[in-house]
Design a protein that fits this description.
The complex is a heterodimer of chains A (292) and B (258). Chain A has 292 residues and is of the alpha/beta class. Chain A folds into two domains: 222 residues, Rossmann fold; 45 residues. In chain A, a hairpin with a 3-residue loop joins β6 and β7. Chain A starts with 13 loop residues before the first helix and ends with a helix. Chain B is α/β, with parallel strands linked by helices and 258 residues long. Chain B has two domains: 179 residues, P-loop containing nucleotide triphosphate hydrolases (Rossmann fold); 67 residues. In chain B, 38% of the residues lie in helices and 24% in strands. Chain B is built from ten helices and ten strands. In chain B, the strands form two sheets. In chain B, strands 6-7-8-3-9-10 form a six-stranded mixed beta sheet, sandwiched between helices. Chain B is globular. Chain B starts with 6 loop residues before the first strand and ends in a 5-residue tail after the last helix. The mean pLDDT of chain B is 91. Classes of the chains: A alpha/beta (292), B alpha/beta (258). At the A-B interface, α5 of A face α2, α4 and α5 of B. Chain B: Belongs to the ABC transporter superfamily. Chain B: GO terms for molecular function: ATP binding; ATP hydrolysis activity; lyase activity. Chain B: This is Phosphonate C-P lyase system protein PhnK.
């Protein structure tokens, strides 16, 4: 290691961590409010989770156990690289088990397994402003948050119903936090929105390019916006997971061949493996074993 | 018309640095009354309208509005939240260019429904019913409710903008050249529509226009502005038929007679 450049623990220098921690504390104090912070350049491109990585780097301690997921999976490129990054620059223990992790950095999913007190979920957020596509001016959206003018958010949902007959927003579904701020839960599927409500774990959101941090403290009310006659609903799947047979979980569609063959499997790979270890089996798994 | 003014304007002036926008304008506007502000380009009409509608802060003078609770409030001393609430409930603002007043990328129905959602309406069916009702009243076919204003003609856009403003039953509507950029037959239809709505709803309106025909058709009273000051005001018919000031005479006589 002597001939290599030496990094400070967890890559960021202490001054930067201090700055980010202050932003995090402020974000926790005002649930759902987007706190500006001086986002640093990270050794990865914007859009790959620079915000989440900075938040994780600032809260990470030597005793933490880190889990990184991308689309629910522990073994995809983004998850593997970020996990390797923190192993290298912070030498922390890593895991793929949701139960064992103290910090979980995620893109898109909240683990199926219920989080508990003491765990922290760090989201990588591309566009933190829920009003952005309706109102391009940042000065105006800030004012709208300040004055709680959220009628526009419902205009978006109205458009959905007018075009599709139902609320067709399936991800980044806007929520109201603690009855005050409307927040974009980052591109998680709306399936995960109910898990944010009264979550036991601390939830931190980092947007690197947009330079914003926001938070949902434990046991905070998170309500998905809807209409009285078109209430909020999560996605439903008509089949259980093909590998572990789990129901009421979020499934990924996997194309198997060019003849229209496809399967639906848990997007949360850790949850799926856990269930299989416990002896649960879906119909595709059983067939595979029979073939062997 | 009741005897209590809806809007009291007292000695309003607006300076842009050392340049005059408008100066020493005073008048009262009563409920149900339509006031036209006419004058040539650069005479301060739009500046005055902006000062009245709180889009600009006057340099001096006071604009007071008769709130629904019966109190007069100085608009300049109102909090921003309250002012914005007033603007989207009790007031309307019709821009010359409909693109400024509409959301061009959301459907006509959502454009009309936006104000309802802003004041807390959360029932899709009710919002849609109100939107269809208003589209019908401004003569836009119900089959266009899910089309974006981008697909509308100039006249339809302007009518949609009017519907969007009137859905919360405001008491006061500001209009900045509402017929600008429309051809004459479309103008005539729009004017007819606005006249009907103003009459049916008992709206008070302040209309800025350089077109004396618009003032003649819509307004009860008019003010003529020149170089930032009001040089003549009175009943519309009186001002147009018997102008006193030389400038007003010039203005009236410069209309082309076909």
């Amino acid at each position: 290691m002597t001939d290599l450049a030496t990094y400070n623990f967890a890559y960021l220098d202490e001054q930067t961590k201090r700055m980010i921690r202050r932003a995090i504390l402020k974000a926790i104090a005002i649930p759902g409010y987007q706190v500006p912070f001086a986002s640093r350049e990270m050794p990865m491109p914007y859009g790959w989770g620079t915000g989440g990585v900075q938040v994780t780097a600032s809260i990470l301690g030597p005793k933490d156990v880190l889990k990184v997921i991308d689309q629910g999976a522990d073994d995809t490129t983004n998850a593997v690289s970020i996990r390797a990054f923190f192993q290298k620059v912070a030498d922390v223990a890593v895991t793929t088990k949701t139960k064992e992790a103290t910090i979980i950095q995620t893109r898109h999913r909240i683990p199926e397994e219920g989080l508990r007190e003491g765990q922290t979920l760090v989201y990588q957020v591309p566009i933190p402003e829920p009003l952005r596509f309706l109102e391009p001016r940042e000065t105006e959206t800030r004012k709208m948050h300040a004055l709680e003018e959220y009628g526009l958010m419902h205009v978006k949902l109205y458009e959905d119903i007018a075009r599709n007959g139902h609320i067709a927003t399936t991800y980044a579904y806007p929520v109201k936090v603690e009855g005050r701020y409307v927040m974009d839960p980052s591109p998680t599927p709306k399936f995960d929105n109910p898990k944010m409500h009264m979550s036991e774990a601390l939830q931190l959101f980092g947007a690197g390019r947009e330079k914003r941090i926001y938070a949902v403290p434990p046991y905070t009310e998170v309500v998905s916006l809807d209409f009285e006659d078109h209430p909020f609903e999560v996605q439903k799947f008509d089949k259980p997971c093909a590998l572990c047979g789990a129901e009421n979980v979020y499934l990924d569609e996997v194309v198997l061949d060019d003849k229209g063959g496809r399967m639906f499997a848990c997007s949360d790979t850790d949850h799926c493996e856990d269930r299989r270890d416990c002896g649960h089996a879906g119909h595709m798994l059983a067939r595979k074993e029979a073939a062997e | 018309m009741s005897a209590v003014p809806l809007l009291k304007v007292n000695d309003v002036s607006k300076f842009y640095g050392s340049r005059i926008g408008c100066r020493n304008v005073s008048f009262d506007l009563f409920p149900g009354e339509v006031l036209a502000i006419v004058g040539e380009s650069g005479s301060g009409k739009t500046t005055l309208l902006s000062c009245l509608s709180t889009r600009l802060m006057p340099t001096s003078g006071i604009v007071e509005y008769h709130m629904r609770d019966g109190q007069y409030r100085d608009l300049a001393r109102m909090g921003e939240a309250e002012r914005r609430f007033l603007m989207r409930t009790d007031w309307g603002f019709v821009h010359q260019n409909p693109a400024d007043g509409l959301r061009m990328t959301v459907s006509a129905g959502a454009n009309v429904g936006e104000r309802l959602m802003a004041v807390g309406d959360r029932h899709y069916g009710n919002i849609r019913a109100a939107a269809s009702d208003w589209l019908e009243r401004v003569e836009i076919g119900i089959d266009r409710i899910d089309d974006q204003p981008r697909a509308f003609s100039g006249g339809m856009r302007q009518r949609l903008q009017i519907a969007r403003n009137l859905v919360t039953s405001p008491r006061l509507v500001f209009m900045d050249e509402p017929t600008g950029g429309l051809d004459v037959s479309v103008q005539a239809r729009l004017l007819d529509l606005v006249r009907g709505l103003v009459h049916d709803l008992g709206l008070a309106a302040i209309i800025v226009t350089h077109d004396l025909a618009v003032a003649r058709l819509l307004s009860h009273r008019m003010m003529v502005m020149k170089d930032g000051a009001v040089i003549e005001q009175g009943l519309t018919d009186r001002v147009l038929d018997d102008p006193r000031e030389p400038y007003t005479q010039l203005l009236v006589s410069s209309i082309l007679q076909v």
